[in-house]
Amino acid sequence: xxxxxxxxxxxxxxxxxxxxxxxxxxxxxxxxxxxxxxxxxxxxxxxxxxxxxxxxxxxxxxxxxxxxxxxxxxxxxxxxxxxxxxxxxxxxxxxxxxxxxxxxxxxxxxxxxxxxxxxxxxxxxxxxxxxxxxxxxxxxxxxxxxxxxxxxxxxxxxxxxxxxxxxxxxxxxxxxxxx
Length: 179
Hints:
Oligomer: single chain
Order of helices and strands: EHHEEHE
Shape: globular
Structural class: alpha+beta
């Protein structure tokens, strides 16, 4: 599957006490901002699907927040100032690269989100210590390499077979830096 796009709300210290409580609960004290596809912590900006959206979104279970057309998404999302415009790849077989366009996307890392797109196993499940340590995650809550992300995905299934959020997809996450 080619690149997909989504605009999410930022989750960072500007949330004040909510951010502080999250850091305390999660143990992810190294975070300066969470850049994730977790829809609870980094909520999608486009909240409802309109009839005109269908040709431009991923028509698949649990994927309706993702757009295949960047220009259309930007029209739908409105201003993306103080939001995260993300270019993502689901289960890439190799390190992916975003297409060249007027937005420059920088690689942030790899997220592991359960197959129903309900929560990030890395940042919103309280940790899975047999699969990864919190200290492995970047200042944005992501894993730095595809190899490690795939290994964590395997370890989640191995050590937590009955845990719903341990059945994950690996996502390569790139963030636009010029919006």
